[in-house]
Structures are given as structure tokens and as C-alpha cells.
Q: What sequence folds into this?
């Protein structure tokens, strides 16, 4: 009976500690201007992207030849393009494409990079093979490697996600490997080995929880990089195929009339800038929150 009471008390204490930790993290988060500003920007952009079909009734591909290259007005907030399509509508729908691609790439690279980094750090046999493959992929500029992959797979949103995942996974893998190597040398890991704990348990139950912080921060930066590279691919004609609304496609359509219709390049450019700015602010803020040692060095 006494043992049961002790167990219940310990579980209650653990729950209370977790609640206090969550409350403390939220308190620090709302005090962190970088993380809070980035989060607000991303919430607004995500809100507009998700609700775009409800807010906007016109199709992003609706052609009106009589309304070609109209400047911004009350009827067309961002003007119209060289096909008479509403630029505001295309920018809002383009946000959906960019966020889907960015989130998908960040998630996939986080999963694959974690597996590669953890196994490379823990198993010396895997380290040489996985890191040399990563070095080979990282030797190519990101945009050139993405173009090469897209040229072989074909232009569509799924292949863009695959190409960018291949491009950014080695970077995440190296980051996780570096963090895991530090954790691997801790005394408690050596104690677990001495007690006969399995490698699978040590890697995923003891090392992995201690590298989540750099993983989350790295994923936010990959999110931003994926949006930039996707826009560059679409601008070069190797990404999302026209006439699908994509920030890169809108920029491509506007480059031929940049001096006559400045709004076709300014507004999608601002959308890309704000999204990447928000993600980078959020990532920097998270890095300060999750790694107090890094903050103390500034």
C-alpha cells in the first residue's frame, strides 16, 4: 500500500513539474521578441493562405484580356498581370503552395536527417558511408542540384518536394550528428551501455530527446530555405508548372514587364521576403529559448 502511494505521489509530482515547465516556456516565449514577432507574422500568412478560397471568390487563373496590366486599385488590390489575372488572388493562392512545400520539406528533412545523423553518430561503420554521401550532395550548390533532380523527375509539386528534400537532408543530418556526438559522450550513455541497454533504446530513448532542440531550430531555417529555392525553381521554369499560382511563377511572368507593371514583381517579392523574415525571426527566437548557452555568447 505504501509503495502504491509513493508511486502515485511521484507521478503527481512529475505532472506538476511538466505543467510548470510548459508555463515557464510559454512565459519565456512571450517575452522573446524575435520568436513572438516571427510567430505573429507566420500566423497571419498561414491564416490568409488557408482561408484564401473563402476570402477570394475569383479563380487565380481567371483570364480577362480587357483588364491586362491594370495598376493596383480598389477593385484589384495588387493590380492585374499580362493575362488580366488578379495578382492579389494569385499571391494568396501562391502562399498555399509555398507553405505546403516548405512545411513538407522541413518535415521530411527533419525525419530523414534525424535518422541519418543519429545512426552516423552512434555507429562508426555508418558514419563514414552516410557522411561521405552527405558531403557529395552538399558539394553541389542547392539550386543546381534541385534543377538537376527536377529535370530528371519532371515539374510538379510532388517532385519539387522530393528534390528539395534531397538537397536539404544532408545539412540536417550533419547538424544532428554533431549534436548527437556530444550527447553520446555523456556519462549516463556510457552507464547504459555498461548495463547492457540495446543500441536502439539508447539512440531513440536517450540520445534523441536531447537533440530535439537543434532539430526544431534547424527545421525552421529549412522551411525558409525551401520557400526561397522553390520560388527560384519556378522562376527558372523548373518548379511548379504554369499557370499554377506560385510566387516564382508570378515573378517569372512579371520580369518581361517589370518597367511597365512593377506590381507584378514587387508584391510577390514582398510576400517571399515577409515569409522568410518571419521564419528566420522565429528560428532565431527558438534558438535563444532552447539554447541558453548560445544566448549568453551574444
A:
Amino acid at each position: 500500500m505504501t509503495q502504491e502511494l509513493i508511486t502515485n505521489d511521484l507521478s503527481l509530482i512529475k505532472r506538476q513539474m511538466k505543467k510548470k515547465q510548459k508555463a515557464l516556456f510559454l512565459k519565456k516565449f512571450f517575452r522573446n521578441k524575435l520568436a513572438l514577432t516571427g510567430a505573429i507574422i507566420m500566423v497571419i500568412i498561414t491564416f490568409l493562405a488557408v482561408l484564401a478560397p473563402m476570402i477570394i471568390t475569383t479563380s487565380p487563373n481567371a483570364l480577362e484580356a480587357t483588364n491586362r496590366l491594370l495598376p493596383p486599385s480598389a477593385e484589384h488590390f495588387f493590380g492585374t498581370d499580362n493575362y488580366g489575372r488578379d495578382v492579389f488572388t494569385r499571391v494568396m493562392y501562391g502562399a498555399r503552395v509555398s507553405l505546403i512545400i516548405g512545411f513538407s520539406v522541413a518535415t521530411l528533412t527533419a525525419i530523414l536527417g534525424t535518422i541519418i545523423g543519429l545512426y552516423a553518430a552512434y555507429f562508426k561503420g555508418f558514419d563514414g558511408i552516410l557522411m561521405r554521401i552527405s558531403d557529395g550532395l552538399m558539394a553541389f550548390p542547392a539550386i543546381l542540384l534541385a534543377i538537376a533532380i527536377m529535370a530528371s523527375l519532371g515539374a510538379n509539386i510532388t517532385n519539387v518536394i522530393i528534390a528539395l528534400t534531397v538537397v536539404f537532408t544532408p545539412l540536417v543530418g550533419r547538424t544532428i550528428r554533431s549534436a548527437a556526438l556530444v550527447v553520446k559522450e555523456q556519462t549516463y550513455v556510457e552507464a547504459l551501455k555498461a548495463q547492457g541497454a540495446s543500441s536502439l533504446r539508447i539512440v531513440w530513448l536517450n540520445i534523441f530527446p536531447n537533440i530535439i532542440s537543434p532539430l526544431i531550430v534547424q527545421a525552421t531555417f529549412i522551411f525558409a530555405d525551401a520557400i526561397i529555392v522553390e520560388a527560384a525553381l519556378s522562376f527558372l521554369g523548373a518548379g511548379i508548372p504554369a499557370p499554377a499560382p506560385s510566387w516564382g511563377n508570378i515573378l517569372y511572368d512579371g520580369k518581361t514587364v517589370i518597367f511597365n507593371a512593377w506590381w507584378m514583381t514587387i508584391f510577390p517579392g514582398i510576400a517571399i521576403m515577409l515569409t522568410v523574415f518571419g521564419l528566420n525571426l522565429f528560428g532565431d527566437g527558438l534558438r535563444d529559448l532552447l539554447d541558453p548557452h548560445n544566448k549568453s555568447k551574444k
